[in-house]
Each structure stands twice: as structure tokens, then as C-alpha cells.
Amino acid sequence: MNNRAVDAVGIGNAIVDVLSHAETSLLEREGLSKGTMTLIDGPRAEALYADMGPGVEVSGGSAANSMAGLAALGGQAAFIGKVRDDQLGGIFRHDIRAAGVIFDTPSATEGAPTARCFIFVTPDAQRTMGTFLGASVDLGPEDVDEELIAGAKVTYLEGYLWDRPRAKEAFVKAAEVAHRAGRKVALTLSDPFCVERHRVEFRDLVDGHVDLVFANEHEVCSLYEVTAFDDALQAVRGSCEVAALTRSEKGAVVLRDGEVHVVDAEPAEKVIDTTGAGDLFAGGFLYGYTQGRGLYDCARIGAIAAAEVISHFGARPEASLADLVAGQSA
Q: Which CATH architecture group holds 6-13+62-105+137-329?
């Protein structure tokens, strides 16, 4: 038996979120549009950081958040992503390992610094973000740990990484290794704009190379260029083994062959920050899936994990997800 067997390994952007309270005047000074996310380059990142007030660093990244959620539920999780040998790279490595996730990808010793997302929280609770992808986009096929992939029940791929050719090579290599070992491959579509950029390739991935697909309503509608969710359901049906589609407060729909499961959203006492809801849904779902649970139960666990993460700032769980799920099962 592979001595590095895990339930799931995620491959994606390794990002550190830097959160700080800010006045609207700072956003105006920096030319940031309130409530939006803007991709920025290195010099712009340095300028924003210099103008930022005291900050709190919290590790993030979509697939990394999902793996942290899976680990919080008691699963065995691993992550592959690129950081630089700098301060934020050290923070990312410490945080994800402290969350119980295996992370052994070597740090880059040259090139761009660790990716960071500057999050400015204004007094009206709006979050305005500037994201510098840095070293995360330099992930390549040489970073794919074949032994780890072969030992994982599911390899979970983050659509955000599909922008760079070498990252695509890493994805293809990981999927091939997983399938040769008789394992499953999952893909999250990540963002409607990401889907628009790579629609043809994503359709090919979903149709022929991916066993599980995760998407929200907007992403799956964009994938098939339809406006009605029911039309997207019909289009994705049969394209892959499992499609898990989230609809925010409307819950989720999960498809497999002739099965259709409609799962209500878990009520949240107060919604503070919706960042990471889809990531934690996927982490919870994958936990149930790798433990042999039925699809309805997988989605219920995902809904519970998503409800927890939107109840506070940050995209990593703070309460015990295992206790929350156990409480729902009691």
C-alpha cells in the first residue's frame, strides 16, 4: 500500500490574504473600486502594501481552503501549490500545515514573491481586493508529486490555475497519474470569468477527463452558454460521473446518472463574509465522498461547512466542522 495515501490532494494557487480596515479615502487614493477584486502586478502590490494600515495575514487560495475544510472534518488532505521562500511563503506553509494538511511543494528560490490578496474592509463592511498572483502561477509539472497523487482517492484541480501553459501541463500530468492509479479527478470551475476564458477546454475536461465537477449556478450556466439553471442541468447531465452545483441560499443540486439530489442550504445565523463558501462546500463534499457517504449526505456536509465559513471573516473554518456535522447527525 502507498504509505502516503490520503483522501484528497488539491492543486491550486497558494495565496496569503492580508486584511486591513480602511477608510473609503484610501480606496479613492489608490484608484480601487469598492467591493470589487482587481488583479495587480508586483510593483502595484508593493505600493498597496505600503499604503495599507496594520494587517492580519490569513492563508487562502481556493483549493487550499477546500483541503483545510476536509482536514477539519477529520479527513486526510494534501495540497500542491507554489510559494516563494519569503515571509508570506512561510506564513502560508505554517498555516496550511497547522490545519492538518500535508504541504511539501518546495518553495521557489527565485522569481516572483508569494501570491497575496490585499483585502480592504471599509466601515460599511464592504471588502475591496487587489490580488497579486506572484509565485503561484509558476507551478509546473515538476511540482506534481506522482506518489502523492497516486495515493489520493481524489485529485482536486482549481480552475483558476488554467491560465498558464505550465500549470495546464501540471493538471494534465496529475489527472493522468490519478487515472492510471484508478483514482478520481475533480475540477472546480472557480469563476464565471475563468469559464469564459477557457470554455472550450473546460468543456473538454468535464466531458472526458474529470470524474467530479464543482460549480456554482453562474459558472455552469457560463460553461454551457445558457441563462436558465435547468438548461445547464440538462447540459451537464452525463458529462461526468458527478456534478455538484451550488446555488447560494437556494442550496445545491447533485447529479449522477439517473440520480438528482436537491439539498437545502444550511441556515446561517449571520452572514459576515461569503468568501470561501464554495471552497468549503467542496471540502465538505469531498470528505463525505471519500468516506463512502451517499451523495445527499456529501452535499449536506458541504452545506454545513459552507455555513460555518460565511459566519466570520476569512475562508478557513474557525469552529469544529467535525462537531457541527456530528451535531446534525445526532
A: 3-Layer(aba) Sandwich (3.40)
